[in-house]
Amino acid sequence: MVEWITSDSLVDYDEAVRFMEERASAIAAGTAEECVWLLEHPPLYTAGTSAKIEDLTDPERFPVYATKRGGQYTYHGPGQRVVYVMLDVGKRGRDVRRFVNELETWVIKALAEFNLTGHIRDGRVGVWIERPDKPLRADGSLCEDKIAAIGIRLRKWVSFHGISLNVEPDLEHFTGIVPCGIQEHGVTSLVDMGLPVSMTDADLALRRAFAEVFSDHPAG
After folding, report:
1. Buried (b) or exposed (e) across 136-175, using 16+ Cβ within 10 A?
2. Cα separation of the two ends of the chain
3. For residue range 110-119, what is the model confidence (pLDDT) as tens digits?
4. What mean pLDDT value characterizes the chain?
5. For the chain, which end, N or C, has fewer CB atoms within 10 Å of the first or last residue's CB respectively?
């Protein structure tokens, strides 16, 4: 079974990493259940394994944490639902590409509960929202804003790190970095899209969508 944990207060980043690493090791050893942890962090930036220092445009603004997850720079802070997924990918097919696709599908299904259509784009990790309400880009294409970031790490086929979904964070806080190394697109949130969604609403949507995408009982 998958254990769900929800933290009501802001969680220190180093504390979260310690918990994830210990839990992932226990899952790999067969001594703990898989786990999904819903939380919020105080304002901070994280640097993934592909981060470029020039994309950290305001290094003094918030604490910056080097992390071993995939991806580049991301922001975490209040109003953003961070979803850490400690799942046994070894028992869920041993297919990393498929697992990332399942994470993306999970977010898209959750967004659909609020009548939002999330999109996946080649070369741009995460989930994107088309913005016909904004001016067209120079090439005539629609503007798109990122609403969820995805970055994971696997150890002994157990995942940790995961997803961050923008519910109602301070979007101005993203300006201290080039989010995920992408300059030509912006960032949005559920509330920024005009949806009066609470964190509890988002959590319920995520739990329902998880049940549609992942089995609580992995094979193996």
Report:
1. eeeeeeebbbbbbbbbbbbeebbbbbbbbbbbbbebebbe
2. 13
3. 999 999 999 9
4. 92
5. N
Q: How far apart are CA 78 and CA 28, in angstroms?
A: 31
How much of the chain is helix, strand and coil, in % rounded to 5? 30, 30, 40
Q: What is the pTM of this model?
A: 0.93
Amino acid residing at 181: G
**CA gap 20, 6 in Å, rounded:** 14
- What is the distance between the alpha carbons of residues 89 and 156, in angstroms, rounded to a whole number? 9
Answer for the pair 30, 58: CB distance below 8 angstroms, yes or no. Answer: no
Bridge partners, residue 22, by sequence: none
Q: What would the two tokens of residue 199 be?
A: 């964190």
Residue of 43, 41, 51, 13 lying closest to 178 (CA atoms)? 51
Using the structure block, give the residue that is written with the tokens 């319920």.
Answer: 204
Q: In angstroms, rounded to a whole number, what is the distance separating the alpha carbons of residues 150 and 87?
A: 15
β-pairing, 80-86 vs 158-166, is antiparallel
Q: What is the mean pLDDT of residues 126-155?
A: 91
What phi and psi, each to the nearest 5 degrees, are found at residue 41? Answer: -105, 155
* Dist CA 192 CA 169 (whole Å): 9
Residue type, 105: T
Give the residue carrying structure tokens 């990493």.
17
Beta bridge partners, 66, equal 47
Q: Which residues contact 56 (CB under 8 A, 6 or more apart)?
A: 45, 47, 64, 73, 176, 177
